[in-house]
């Protein structure tokens, strides 16, 4: 375990150890107050964040460590035109671990290639968000014991919702999971994620309203529309308010269903749902902090080996995704053939014309 680009980077054993440590911290947090004393976390947030940023900072402080970094790229050298590579090389010589959120897809993978300390992906565009998946899994495991044989509904922006993508990758490990993908047409899962579900024989069905499938579900994972990822504001406006969970609708759900949400919520969950014992999203946020404590503690103890860069590969290809980190950081080595997946963001590679 070196860098955490996606939670699936952990083996089953590593995840099981991490979950056990998280549980121990939840049960006895005071026992860990000095566990990272003297360690420094570099926290680089190139995109707005409340939960993840505060959660990581609090996690490090509760372990007795300290935090450096920025939460507004405007106040960093990125605003002066510094490359990601230079920022990471520099910060990794100050800090013992780096947590980074960046709007470009594949940015965490790119950063990991130039870092001399572990890099944790705190969200790379609409691509992945592994520590949210850790948060989600800790919640399901603490409250229900397992995710096996569960019927899990994912509702909302499945296109740009990186938390959904990382969660689906991870759920592949649990037997008998059935997925219900609930989204308006324009917000359905990207092709590479649909391919992932098919390649891994993960049963799924698609629905365009939560009412259709609600009585079936053991977990309902709600997400907001990722407004900031829309190139066209009118496209967003067309979809705004197109789905909403209310206390009235919840009456048809199982008595022990869990309602999860990575937060922030906009209007997709009505306020009247908050008092329902099935609504566990605030508890989920708290579990996330403990999961991050366990992750930071684990990484701080591991011997670290620099990952090394991939060889500079064939010329004549580019990533088809205009939000890919390779489009703005042109020094990044890109290998592969046309039609294969981009090593940074998973989109297909295409001919460079
Ligand atoms: C999520 C994210 O940033 O992707 N938030 C979070 O980390 N808690 C979900 C979101 O912003 O909608």
Explained architecture:
32% of the residues lie in helices and 14% in strands. With 353 residues, the chain is of the alpha/beta class. The longest helix is centred in the last third of the chain and has 21 residues, at 281-301. The mean pLDDT is 94. Bound molecules: N-carbamoyl-L-aspartate.
Summarize it.
By secondary structure, the chain is α/β, with parallel strands linked by helices.
Q: List all distinct small molecules, including ions and cofactors, that are bound in this structure.
A: N-carbamoyl-L-aspartate
Share of helical residues: 25-40%
Individual helix count: 11
**Average pLDDT value?**
94
Low-confidence stretches: none
Q: Name the strands of the widest sheet in spatial order.
A: 7-6-5-8-9
Biggest pleated-sheet summary: 5 strands, parallel
Gyration radius from CA atoms, angstroms: 20 Å
The termini sit apart by 38 Å
**Coarse shape:** globular
Structural class: alpha/beta
State the order of secondary-structure elements, H for helix, E for strand: HEHEHEHEHEHEHEHEHHEHEE
Number of strands: 11
Binned strand content: 5-15%
What topology emerges from the helices and strands here?
Blueprint: H1 12-27, E1 40-45, H2 51-62, E2 66-70, H3 84-91, E3 97-102, H4 107-112, E4 119-124, H5 130-144, E5 151-155, H6 162-171, E6 178-182, H7 191-199, E7 204-207, H8 210-213, E8 219-222, H9 233-239, H10 247-250, E9 258-260, H11 281-301, E10 317-319, E11 349-351
Parallel strand pairs: 1-2, 1-3, 3-4, 5-6, 5-8, 6-7, 8-9
Antiparallel strand pairs: 10-11
N-carbamoyl-L-aspartate binds next to helix 2 and helix 6.
């Amino acid at each position: 375990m070196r860098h955490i680009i996606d939670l699936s980077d952990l083996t089953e054993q590593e995840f099981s150890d991490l979950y056990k440590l998280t549980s121990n911290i939840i049960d006895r947090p005071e026992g860990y107050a000095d566990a990272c004393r003297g360690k420094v976390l570099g926290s680089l947030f190139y995109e707005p964040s409340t939960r993840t940023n505060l959660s990581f900072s609090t996690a490090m402080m509760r372990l007795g460590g300290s935090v450096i970094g920025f939460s507004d790229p405007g106040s960093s050298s990125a605003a002066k035109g510094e490359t990601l590579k230079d920022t990471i090389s520099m910060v990794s010589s100050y800090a013992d671990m780096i947590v980074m959120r960046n709007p470009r897809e594949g940015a965490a993978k790119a950063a990991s290639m130039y870092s001399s300390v572990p890099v944790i992906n705190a969200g790379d565009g609409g691509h992945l968000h592994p520590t949210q998946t850790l948060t989600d899994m800790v919640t399901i495991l603490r409250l229900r014991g397992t995710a096996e044989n569960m019927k899990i509904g994912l509702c909302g922006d499945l296109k740009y919702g990186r938390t959904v993508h990382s969660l689906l990758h991870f759920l592949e490990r649990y037997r008998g999971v059935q997925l219900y993908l609930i989204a308006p047409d324009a917000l359905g899962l990207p092709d590479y994620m649909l391919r992932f579900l098919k390649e891994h024989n993960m049963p799924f069905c698609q629905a365009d309203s939560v009412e259709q499938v609600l009585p079936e579900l053991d977990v309902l994972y709600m997400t907001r529309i990722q407004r900031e990822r829309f190139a066209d504001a009118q496209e967003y406006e067309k979809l705004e308010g197109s789905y909403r969970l209310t206390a009235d609708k919840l009456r048809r759900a199982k008595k022990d269903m869990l309602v999860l949400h990575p937060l922030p919520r906009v209007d997709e969950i009505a306020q009247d749902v908050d008092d329902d014992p099935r609504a566990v999203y605030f508890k989920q946020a708290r579990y996330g902090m403990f999961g991050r404590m366990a992750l930071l503690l684990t990484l701080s103890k591991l011997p670290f080996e620099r990952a090394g860069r991939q060889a500079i590969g064939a010329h004549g290809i580019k990533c088809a995704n205009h939000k890919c980190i390779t489009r703005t950081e042109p020094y990044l080595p890109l290998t592969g053939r046309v039609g294969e997946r981009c090593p940074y963001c998973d989109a297909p590679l295409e001919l460079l014309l």
